[in-house]
Amino acid sequence: MSRHTDTHLARTLANPSFSDSFTAHDWEALIGQARTSDMLGQVAEVLGASDRLERVPAAVRFHLDAALRMAALHKSSLLNELAVIGEALQDIGQPVLLLKGAAYAAADLPAGRSRVFNDIDLMVAKDVLNAAESALYRRGWLPTHLNAYDQRYYREWMHELPPIEHRSRGTVIDLHHTIVPPTSGHHPDAAQLIADARPVRIDGCPDVFHVLSPVDMVMHSACHLFFGELQKGLRDLYDLHALLSELSADPAFQEALLPRARTQQLEYPVLLAVHFAHRVFGTRIPESLRNECERRLSSRWNGALSDHLIDAAMYPQHPSSDSVWRRVRRQMLYARSHWLRMPLHQLLPHLAYKALVHRDDPAG
Amino acid sequence: MPADAVQTLADLSTGEVEARLHSDAGLRLRFGRFVAGIRSDLRPLARGIETLYGDYPVAGDDDFCDFPVELTGTGGLRRFVRPQVVFRFEGMQPFKPLPGQQAVAMLEWGLNWVFTNHAQHYLIIHAAVLERNGAGLIMAAPPGSGKSTLCAGLALKGWRLLSDELALVGLEDGLLTPLPRPISLKNQSIDVVRRLPGEIVMGPVAHDTAKGTVAHMRPPRASVDAALATVQPRWILFPKFGAGSACEVEAMGRAQTFMQLVGNAFNYPRLGATGFEAMARLVDACDGYTARYGSLDQIVPTLEALCARPA
Question: Which of A110, B207, B221, B233 is the most exposed place for a label (fewest CB within 10 A)?
């Protein structure tokens, strides 16, 4: 790691003019960090949006253009896939929410531009979860985690079913019924989230799809990042940067964000989102909202420690930006994510089972 | 050496090669249009690289490195007892470690993986590619069909080697982009090729790999020198070696050629309609054949005659 290069990716995304004085060595650090963070497409987008692609050295441009090409193909195959899913799910008679990457792409948000992702995240009301699952099985999706323990783990404890995979196209769907694991002790009102969702239209597809309201979308993105393992920390934080940049100028959004997060018992991740987005990407967030978030964060007893640990997840896991201490802190974050996900009396038997008994099912 | 001549690996002393392999920037070699920066502290690998890549141009430290790779031993006791080698790309470890004596083979496999996953401006087909009189021959076949042996046989007869592993078909122009690399030979074919006439340099032999015994043949200098010259594809061949088999070359219909090539293409599904169009243009521009043969003595003259015919 070198202190000179370790923030090249974040700084270029925040302010593409940072790349204007790059040497070949700097470009190598940027491309490497973007590759390991799955963010080449986003880098190409910001350089293109500021008319810099033409000035990028040809050898670097090759990789950026390739990323744009792959992202465009990714998006068109996503839309094809959603058309099939939409037809499969139109008879459940309830809205189907798109979450995360699929939502950003379908709603054409800046956060979704040239962003690639592996799984399609869907959410439906819990009472139609089984119907939705069966409908997808009838269209060629198959369960992956056949092991009885895994099935129970997901179905009883988690906020989503075990991932299901299409038998010929290989697309993977995570079907959710709420946005955080019930075992985490947080119980957001899923019915309210669904009721407030906004319809999105996709060409050639039945009108079943919705996306979360702007405030809920930020809240969910924040939960996903800060209650998760922070494996793709910088990428997920960049999603929040893009969402907050676009949405937080709206006074209605500013007023609603924290009260909504509080009533859904999910204020903490939203505070962290505002804090880290501003710190890492300099996200433009109205000062009153930002000050309020900082004030609330600073009143937490473990604020400084969490801050220090989470900071390590905001560097790409690339030789130009990684260090032993950052790896150690990420290990602690990994442990923390399990701690946040379930209480000790469930976590300890779960980890013991995973370590001692569990064999990966061949189908999984 | 004249000042404007390209510096090749052979121009560097052994000490200089090792110093570069140890440096942060790595030993930077030009593979056609790409630059790979190789870092390693493994002596036998340095020897293997000198043997196989002597004719390759060395890129300057100020040239952008497309693909930084690293091969190192695993730490601790493993250094002494059954040492292993790890391949890293951008700090990521895409494969499990291999026994230490397979370091050269691991570099080759690792680079194949890197090129295949990042050359997304091309339709990438698992095939050997050679050029004869300005036109390209694509030989696509699953492993074990004798493709690399035949490729070595043709290269030693003066055909220009574009690649023994990856056909890179331009999505816009339909031309074949060279990526000449050492030819990977397995088991009996190592000795078959060693007995052929011509100047043959082999890298170290690795035993008991996932593919059996493996050795790599240094590519002809002329092929490495012409690594930036693209070629119009003209023939597509699906070769199948069978011990004792007679030599039979049969023309193949376009539809069947298309479907067989799809089966050998790495990124065809990912490329969607673009991939379909590139594949269709390729098949339209070429004559397709299947070939069964029992020895290089039969098939090489047959292909020389076939590919001598005017288009």
Answer: B207
